[in-house]
């Protein structure tokens, strides 16, 4: 059998195969290639895309996956994003996607990102009443390959989060891992750089750019719905490409900066509210540290965010941002996220072991940060 593209019968991923029986690199399911397909069956039809997306997300939420051993692995081919065609998720008005990536075995591995995910999950359930079965978790500690934060899995999870979103819904997207900047190739960034998140497989599948995150999570939000993104990563200030950035000094005075390039097109919502609380500015570095908790390693943003909201019921966005910044600054955190050995030592000496990050707030619309209450 010559090499050809075939679709995994379990998760729908397109693979390059050279035998009549192959094992999927994503879901580990075994597929037997048929010699021909009925001429009346169209595999790119809307109904097939709907069934593929539905099956994929059901498997992610239930944890059911085929792990039969044997056969060779084949890396999936990149697939174009298609809008999910399925009924709204049956998980209620509060839903969340939480991604934590350690990058095991890499020189840039992290220690606190999976801890961040577990802390945020507990926080959402116990503080804001999110149902446990409405929270989708992706970490590279998972044994279920559909719950590993690959680029494809994160893309599908983001689409699930907003699918069927309606007025009154509250959505949360949390990411703890590496972020970076890329040269802007479509001339829609004022500073000439796109911000990006790094999935666990970014070295061969690529990063997730802010343009895609905005198109997937922000623009579909209808009137009355809200999204909070909590991004604990380097270079994350405008990673959602939201139109407005809250520029606040250490005295608490602030103003809203318009961050959108005149030729970038619509970066807002369909009437809903999208807010991003990020670890640092676009040029900044975030920290992975035990200095805040005194015990476990966590992301400085995630820990300061949870502690501030827990300790001050009824706080406003302005108060949240100020206290988070003070918490990180006063902890005198040392060390740079994701770097080890002589490179980290050199940078830390240059920085004097000081704080290199300052949490940021961006939004799809402007508001008075000292009167608007923070509520998930």
Q: Per DSSP, what share of the residues sits in E-state strands of 2 or more residues? A: 15-25%
Helix content: 25-40%
What structural class do helix, strand and pairing data support?
A: alpha/beta
Number of E-state strands: 18
The CATH architecture of the largest domain: 3-Layer(aba) Sandwich
Q: Can you count the helices?
A: 8
Mean pLDDT level: 80
CATH topology of the largest domain: Rossmann fold
| Biggest sheet features | 8 strands, mixed
What does this structure look like?
With 376 residues, this protein is an alpha/beta fold. Helix content is 25%, strand content 21%. It has helices at residues 46-62, 113-128, 151-162, 202-205, 210-218, 300-311, 317-330, 341-351, and strands at residues 4-7, 14-17, 21-24, 30-32, 73-74, 94-100, 135-139, 170-176, 179-183, 193-197, 208-209, 226-232, 244-248, 254-258, 273-278, 288-289, 298-299, 360-363. It has an 8-stranded mixed β-sheet, with helices on both faces. A hairpin with a 5-residue loop joins strand 3 (21-24) and strand 4. It is globular, with a radius of gyration of 21 Å. Residues 35-46, 66-79, 82-90 and 334-355 have low confidence and may be disordered.
